[in-house]
Specification:
The complex is a heterodimer.
Chain A lengths: L1 E7 L2 E7 L3 E10 L4 H14 L3 E12 L4 H13 L3 E5 L3 H9 L8 E2 L2 H15 L1
Parallel strand pairs in A: 3-4, 4-5, 5-6
Antiparallel strand pairs in A: 1-2, 2-3
Chain B lengths: L1 E5 L3 H15 L2 E5 L2 H10 L5 E5 H14 L5 E6 L4 E3 L2 E6 L3 H14 L12 E5 H7 L7 E6 L2 E6 L7 H9 L4 E5 H21 L6 H22 L3 H18 L5 H4 L10 H19 L5 H13 L15 H6 L4 H19 L8 H6 L21 H19 L5 H8 L6 H13 L1
Parallel strand pairs in B: 1-2, 1-3, 3-4, 4-6
Antiparallel strand pairs in B: 5-6, 7-10, 8-9
Helix pairs in contact in B: 2-3, 4-14, 5-6, 5-7, 5-8, 7-9, 8-9, 8-11, 9-11, 9-12, 11-12, 11-16, 16-18
The chains are: A alpha/beta, B alpha/beta.
Chain lengths: 128, 437
Amino acid sequence: MHMTQGQSGDFFYFLNQKEMILVVTLNGHLQEAGIPVLEQCLAEVSTLNPKHVVLNFHNLANLENKAIRGLAQFQIGLRQKSLSLTVCGIRSEFTKVLDEYGAIRPSEVTKDLLSALQKIIVLHRESE
Amino acid sequence: MRVLLAERDKLLRDAVAIALEGLFDATVEAVSTSEAALSFLDKAEDLKLVISSGADTAAIKGFLEKKGRSVPLVSYSEGAAEYAGKGIYELPLPLDLHKLASAITTLLSEKKEPLKLRDGSIFCKVKLETLLFSGQLYQYDVYLKLAEDKYVKVLNKGDAFGVDEYTRYTAKQLKYLYLKEEDFLNFLTAFTHDIDSLLKTKSELVSFESSFEVSQAIHETLLFAIPRFGMQKELENLVRASIHLAVTAMKKNPEISTLVKKKLADKSQFLSWHSTMLTYVSCWVSTLMTWDSETTHYKLALAAYLHDLCLENTKHASYRDLKEFGEGAHSKAEMENFLSHPLRAAELVRGMKDFPGDVDHIVAQHHEQPDGSGFPAGANHTKISPLAALFIISQEIVHSIYDQGKNFTLAQFVKETEQRFQSGYFKKIMQELRKVS
């Protein structure tokens, strides 16, 4: 199990990795200044070699439009470093703007962490 | 909360562990072999929950039984039927994490910690009617509750509790007095003995009026005691004594008009009133059907007494069906508890020593409907046993008595429900009810 966190100002991330699943939880206020933190997070994820990544927005309190491009790049990086990416816990007000910017893929979005883990279980079962 | 998770599949192990950490703030020990699970169990005394896949469940259960340890267990395996019993919940694969979360919530809520005072004492409430019925010289100190954590002794060992004492406390709007936990089960044993003695020597004195209050008081005691002590032999014996009391009273063939006079005085006691009333009404209907052997009365009365004991929220006993339940605002866990309570109550019955056959089936089917719209199995009239059909109709009568109070009439009940109960044994029972209405 790997647990760590990185921080800049009001924004930080938290990683919880078991053997095959990594949960990346974003916390606080994501502004443009927080993009280097996302890059730091991605570099750390590269060393962990997860099979499945869950990106959890549950604790993200605020999202600045200028940070959305960086967030989209972050997700592209996560997809490249894993078999699957599942996004969960997005507040409804963020869903609309992220969708407009094309920064989320509806097929990857689930309501909450439990639903995200359930989706991975189903994927895993289908791949067996 | 410390949890043992025994799962051989890496991905399932990860997913369940992350879910437990996130939802229950659990500290999870995840292992991949039975040996590792048993080794951990041997050391971890403060374990609150075990989750196990099918391959390891038997070894874990065997180990816990051998060591006499009671730890809630959720297991899942291919082909398993969803099942909830005391301290155990079984789920099928593929694993549904939402169901797993509900199962854990259900199991963890079974263990309600009693209030412990600073000196370590735990008090158990006893209804005044129960004390009065016995009227014995108590071998225990009896306490009055002043506040959540403050009790004062009002009866010393050797004092009697008679009509004067009962009147004095009821005048003060008191319903309960309290015994220390270490005396409680002994008191219930003595109380059971008193009922048995009465039935053996003075059964002619037992009337519907006198027995109803005592039966209801005993039911309230069970609601309090079973979650705390489990269905121990003292409680099983008390259930039997109470049922014998009801069956003895029903030998005198009271009319339905007499039964409906026993109104619910306090809504917080709905479940006990409902269960006790159902005890008598189901026996009355069975007499009507001439299915009135003492054994049949005993089965119906036992089913009535226990059928809703596994409801976590006693107010949910007032819901007749899923439609009524669905109209209230309930959490998923409450819905799961409501849906599974017939099967869990049936399991409780099966766990009793020498329980009479059929009672578990009656209890399991008490929310089924002749058209198959009921739950948990959705069985229709062809699959519902005759006694369960009688029980389901009796339950409807009790709900109507509650809804309509003194305006209840059997004729109106028959008129309103005849269309629903037009098949199989339901139809025969309704025909008999129509004759006497």
